[in-house]
Amino acid sequence: MKKLVIAVFAALLCPMLSMAQFNISGTVAENSSVLPGAGIKLKNKGQSVIAGTNGRYEFSNLPAGSYTLVVSYVGYATQEKTINLSANTTVDFKLSALSFLADEVVVSATRASKNTATTYKDLNRAEIAKKNVGQDLPYILNQTPSVVVSSDAGAGVGYTGIRIRGSDATRINVTLNGIPLNDAESQGSFFINLPDLASSVDNIQIQRGVGTSTNGAGAFGASLNIQTTTRRDSAYAELNNTYGSYNTWKNTVSVGSGLIGNKFSFDGRLSRIKSDGYIDRASSNLKSFFVTGAYYGKNDILRANVFSGTEKTYQAWNGVTEDLLQTDRRHNDFTYDNQTDNYQQDHYQLFYTRNLSKTLTANAALHYTYGRGYYEEYKDDQSLAKYQIKPVVVGGTTIDKSDLVRRLWLDNDFYGVTYSLNYTPKTDLSFTLGGAYNEYKGRHFDEVIWAQFANYDASQSARHIYNDNDAFKSDFNIFGRANYQIEQFNIFADLQYRNVYYSYFGKDEAGNPAQQNARLEFFNPKLGLTYNIDAKSNVYASVAVGHKEPNRRDFTDSNINTRPKSEQLTDFEFGYRTQQDVFSLGLNGFAMLYKDQLINTGKLNDVGGQTRQNVPDSYRMGLELDGRWQILKNLSWSATATLSRNKIKEFTEYIYDDADPSGKTFVTNTYKNTDISYSPAIIVSSEIAYNPIKNAEIAFITKYVGKQYLDNSQAATRILPSFFVNDVRLGYNTSIAGIKNVGLSLLVNNVFSTLYENNGGTYPYLYAGDLSRTNYYYPQATRNFLLSLNVKF
Fold first, then answer.
1. Which 8-state DSSP code applies to residue 159?
2. Where is the TonB-dependent receptor-like beta-barrel domain (predicted)?
3. How is 652-719 classified by DSSP, letter by letter?
């Protein structure tokens, strides 16, 4: 009878125990020194916390069961402990300094941390890999706050674009391992030149606003700090193949040696991406490779990266005119067989990191990038004089116009050195000194490779160079940053000096072609304060000043008297962050105040590009949300939202009369308090993920982007309509004897076949006093899929 009572009591008690909620808490330290900022996560549970200023951490309201805790901290060996939780439990960790450095120190000088008063988002390798099924890197970032992406070809392969807080790629500073990726002249980042880069990326930090001091052109919307392959301790081989709509293929082979003799590692990747594109003839043929090798010593790291990409893309950058959207959404203006863009870019990077002492770490890097290529296009009824070709006389008739094919070439070299010193005399105090010196040399030359009528000896050379000029740019910067933790407060100050010299072929005071030069100096201060409410939550506020030089077209489209001014941005950020057991939340407010922001004028230059002008006062203000809720053990919801107001206080539009070859006849329109173009007032994203069985996932992904104006007049007739798009992602991973992982994923984009455009443009046309305007758009694909098979050995 006694045994029966005990059994009944145990049966009644078990459900109660299973329903009970317990806590795990403890400290993270090295010997007697605590390690604030250490990361603690529950393995395979999706929960993580950060150790507070006293080194303490806590997980609350956990059901009874088995848990594995993983603790990591830069410069220390990762440690794991497994416990069976049936009561409140204390688990302390004593970390040991690594016998070799971690790769993270290479980019640490230009990155924000949890206690830094900077608005940022981190993506790790697993998050990137889940979304990397063949589309370009901007599409992998599409679910992060304030992001809008676009695709010329309509399906995310080929030429793609990204805007953050309404700022385009020329205002988003991109670095690879701390080395600038933005083109020195156009200031844009062209990920098409490095296809499948995501397969060699370990992690990405997106800083919105001015962000921390870094290398490269000024960040006027955001910074993308990308770190490529880091040390993987075990050898591996991986095959990744994707097939999808519009005959899209992605084939990737990756291999790695793991850590050899606790000293060396080698990794390599070879990729190919091909697609016909959603838009007619918008095909892409992309290839790339990535090779890296590293030496790990007790106090130093030496790493070399060599990677390259080539692209051949049929042009689709004209978009589709408004009148064709309803009848021929996949229309492409270009019909010439070789209307293509062709480019290759080779990168060489060498990094050395050394612990000079327990408190001082030094980083140095040498880099060289060689880029070359052209785009080829057919032009009809062109004036021969424009191409420096004499008129042709045929049967007594003088011919001064001809159909022709031209190539516009770019051949450039970019090289330099970056460095940083990190001094940590105390656990609550650190100093960073960093900077870079880079040089760019670019040759621009254009040639006619065929003409119906030509007055040059085509039998000797089928090519006629009609434009040939060089550009040179140097960029020096130095920055210092101090970070101090006092009680629950963290204070940082960041000061940067930047000096830019640019020599280019432009116009003199009289408007005549001549070599010109400009030297610009910038001082960019930043100050921030963070208050740690507890180990899981903080509030922060910062103010940062950024400056940005005009780009190549701004210089070449003006003369020395009309040259645009540099832009200035004062960025205020304030927010709240919390990382709880089942949810995380970030709320951020921003006010970006511009002086002399450069915006489109409405006038086109000689290659059809928009010319720009300064506007004295403009601003962006808004609120951002970034959250994740673990609703159930197998159900989670991630969401972002941005509400913003983006205004120009006064803008004057210039429209030139094409009937006047002197360029002196034009009309002007002045607008006040108008919306900045391509700046939606609302951006929302959502991802609901459900795990029906172990290692399987179903995700429903949503993106809503509010209406955008195509120019700065805020005219109702020049709008990019809002769009609401839904995707579904299915994934399953398993292991088979001899194979570490077999992963199968299916991404169905635009599952409801919504007709929408995520980019567009407009230009005014004045001829003999008659004004007309043309809108053009970039239609995106209806329902389409990408099916991927990943095999890891």
1. S
2. 304-751
3. EEEEEBTT-TTS--EEEEEEEEEEPTT--SEEEEEEEEE-SSTTEEEEEEEEEE--EESSTT--TTSE
pLDDT the model gives residue 103 = 79
pTM reported for the whole predicted model: 0.87
Strands 79-85 and 65-72: antiparallel
Name which of 461, 433, 469, 544 is nearest 208 in CA terms: 544
Please state whether beta strands 172-176 and 222-228 pair in parallel, antiparallel, or not at all (unpaired): parallel
Task: Quote the tokens at residue 780.
Answer: 């995106």
Which residue, 291, 272, 274, 278, is CA-closest to 196?
272
Quote the CA–CA distance of 557 and 552 in Å, as a whole number: 8
Report helix, strand or coil for 456: coil
| pLDDT beyond 50 at 342 | yes
> Pairing state of beta strands 33-34 and 21-30?
antiparallel
Q: Do residue 430 and residue 294 come from a single domain?
A: yes
**What's the CA gap between 492 and 481, in Å, rounded?**
7
Domain boundary among 68, 98, 128: 98
Residue 65 to residue 44: CA distance in whole angstroms: 13
307 and 203 in a single domain? The answer is no
| 123, 83: one domain | no
User: Both 460 and 564 in a single domain?
Assistant: yes
| 183 and 244 fall within a common domain | no
Beta strands in 73-212 (DSSP E): 79-85, 89-90, 93-94, 120-123, 147-151, 160-164, 172-176, 179-180, 201-208
Q: Do 221 and 231 share a structural domain?
A: no
Same domain membership, residue 61 and residue 183: no
Give the CATH number, domain containing residue 133: 2.170.130.10
Q: In the structure encoding, which two tokens stand for residue 502, read together?
A: 């640019």
Range of the domain at 334: 226-792
Total domains, the chain = 3
Mark whether 221 and 252 lie in a shared domain. Answer: no
Q: Among 174-178, 231-235, 495-499, name the one with the lowest average pLDDT.
A: 231-235
Which of helix, strand or coil describes residue 114? coil
Inter-residue contact 650 to 672 (CB < 8 Å): yes
DSSP-assigned states of every residue in 234-303: S-EEEEEEEEETTTEEEEEEEEE---BTTTEEEEEEEEEEEE--SSTT--EEEEEEEEEEEEE-SSEEEE
Confirm whether 103 is domain-assigned. no
What are the tens digits of pLDDT across the range 518-537?
999 999 999 999 999 988 89
Give the CATH number, domain containing residue 14. Answer: 2.60.40.10
Instruction: Please list the residues that pair with 375 across neighbouring strands.
Output: 341, 408
Structure-block tokens of residue 467: 């434009």
